[in-house]
Specification:
Strand order of the largest sheet: 1-2-3-4-5-6-7-8
Largest sheet: 8 strands, parallel
Order of helices and strands: EHEHEHEHEHEHEHEHH
Helix content: 25-40%
Oligomer: single chain
Distance between the termini: 24 Å
Number of strands: 8
Number of helices: 9
Strand content: 15-25%
């Protein structure tokens, strides 16, 4: 069994964990999962993430506003985030970024709240957790305009984009998608990213790896992701576990 796993991106405040959240989280250690970062996507989930991180000593969290809620946030949202970020369990601003997959959310508004949070992260000297879906060019252009470091999570870009992000100082996170048969781009990206910039994540309850695709994901499924990434990098799963956990602690200053 793999031990010392660090899930760099989870959403345990999600309603899909309501029935068994405590039991599941208390089982993590015996399943080899030492630490978890729980990620905020709006003001409420950011507050919930802090509560979870305070309840479980092995959990940490981030606070931020996701592009999907760009249309419905108060004007003073950055003040809310600034206040929450004072908590010692808060290790990053995120997840923030751009998502052009659906047309319901104005690109202009998304970019506005993305930039505001990047500026806030600079002020607070915190890393950022970037969400990027179907918005590669704009995401890269905006990141180049702000002096921030952090993680591009659930990476969906090209190997070339991955190389450029690494040069900019970013770490790259991969989910269960890396185990899918059609994950050619993700495999190519892992191939070119240095070991000291790779993170493993579930994005649970989403993105369950094979052979659990379509089920509710949780951190106990990370060995499937780690094993696949280790295979691509031609190292042992134990080494991949150790390196990815060290990388996560480094970028989040844990």
């Amino acid at each position: 069994m793999l031990t010392g796993i660090f899930d760099s991106h989870a959403h345990y405040d999600d309603a899909r964990f309501n029935e068994d959240r405590d039991e599941l989280l208390l089982s993590m250690k015996k399943n080899g999962v030492d630490n978890i970062m729980n990620i905020g996507v709006d003001i409420q989930t950011s507050e919930n993430s802090i509560k979870l991180a305070e309840q479980y000593d092995f959990m940490y969290c981030s606070v931020g506003v996701h592009p999907w809620v760009a249309n419905d946030i108060p004007d003073n949202f950055t003040e809310n985030i600034r206040e929450m970020a004072k908590n010692k369990k808060v290790k990053a601003i995120g997840e923030i970024g751009l998502d052009y997959h659906y047309e319901d959310y104005s690109a202009e508004k998304q970019q506005e709240i993305f930039r505001k949070q990047l500026i806030l992260a600079q002020e607070l000297n915190l890393p950022v957790i970037i969400h990027n879906r179907d918005a590669h060019s704009d995401t890269m252009n905006i990141l180049k305009q702000h002096n921030v470091k952090g993680v591009v999570h659930c990476f969906s870009g090209s190997a070339e984009m991955a190389k450029e992000l690494v040069k900019m100082g970013f770490y790259i996170g991969f989910t269960g998608v890396i185990t899918f048969k059609n994950a050619r781009r993700a495999v190519e990206a892992v191939n070119v990213i240095p070991l000291d910039r790779l993170l493993v994540e579930t994005d649970c309850p989403y993105m369950a790896p094979e052979p659990n695709r379509g089920k509710r994901c949780d951190s106990t499924m990370l060995p499937y992701i780690i094993t696949k990434m280790a295979e691509i990098k031609n190292i042992s799963p134990e080494e991949m576990t150790k390196i990815s956990a060290e990388n996560t602690r480094k970028i989040f200053n844990i």
